[in-house]
Amino acid sequence: MVAAVLGLGLVTACAPGSDGDKPASKAPAAVSTDVAKAGNVTLTVWDQEIQGGQRKQIETLNARFQARYPNVKINRVARSFTDLQKTLRLALSGDDPPDVVQANQGYAAMGQVVKGGLLLPLDSYDQVYGWKKRYPKGLTDLNSVTPDGTSIGGGKLYGVSLNGEIVGIYYNKDKLAKIGIQPPKTWAEFEQALGTAKSKGELPLAFGNLEKLPAMQMYGVIQDQTAGKEAVRNLVFGKSGSWTDQPNVQAAQKLADWAEQGYLTKDANAIKWDDTPVNFAKGQGVFMVGGTWWAADLKDKLGDKVGFMLPPPAQAGGAPVTMGGESLPFSITAKSRHPDVAAAYINFITSPEAMDVSVETGNLPALAPPSRQPDGTVMKEIAAAWAELSKSDGITPYIDYATPNLADTFGGPLQRLLAGKATPQQALGDAQKDYAEFLKKK
């Protein structure tokens, strides 16, 4: 047993289990913050930070952590978001799981692996590092789950996030100028702009939906406008409402109309999500609905030719609303042989220094950076949008949080909707059936 001082007081520290060579199965009663005294450690980290700005960010932070703690070697395994989610549960239940992983929020990912006892609750580490004091409650709630995995937004803390996220609308400034319109100020003006772009021979919206999730995000952006933020929040968190409520059906009808009118990339269901910003940067599309995680790459390729705006409200000057929150949290696996080092790593890559690195690499930090300011027009627009949404409480949750299977039970029907093979009522009916069955089991 040793003691360490980390500016937060004296912390009693001991091995996580009675046998130091066995993986920890639950959070240790006492923790060590002394990474240097942990001995030579290889910390295996699985992340999905593969986009340009995200990749630079995590590579920089990993290098700085290893420089600070030469006894630690980080074995980084980078996977796409889709590949990570597909392989995560199998990897965590195996005999040699990684130490740190990014487990997506919501019932489908974090809820399921917590229910299976595959992640370590972080509350004892939070007492040392003070994450809940550092982050607003709304953000730590997104990474909190009851141990049985049945309720998100409460229970124990299972992860900490580095970046903020907004799903907004990117636009090509040159193309807007070419077709003679300004960035729209209202939702009606945005729809008019889509029609104008189509009539002038331009693709209105760059869009790829092979993985199903992009259509759910596109639908969610529309749903925020038709249903409003409180109804969307209540629906996603199982408090009230039905997927077959008229505003939700109306949103699906709008998405179907956009597809039928040729506003979306042809054969979008066959195009990969990650190819969408690549195609947009090549000049395909006047607009693109997408997350802030694509901003750094678009800035590198388009410079000041790319702009970013929040989905415009119904009335000019009204309060905007859109989905977002925070990036995939970093979590400690239940079988990690080095949970104390893993916790120190998570603390470092979500520290104030990390928020500065987030800005430096073209990302949107979850918390205000202590010294850095965004560089470039699009990054400044995103920072301003984040501040505006935070001030007006305009962020809604990702709709796939609603049930463990909604990405399939609604994502699949949305693919068929886009292909003209399902009606809005059929797509929403499938979502509601899954939703009702899930709520019944809770």
Automatic annotation (TrEMBL):
InterPro entries: Bact_solute-bd_prot1, SBP. It holds the Pfam family SBP_bac_1. This is Extracellular solute-binding protein.
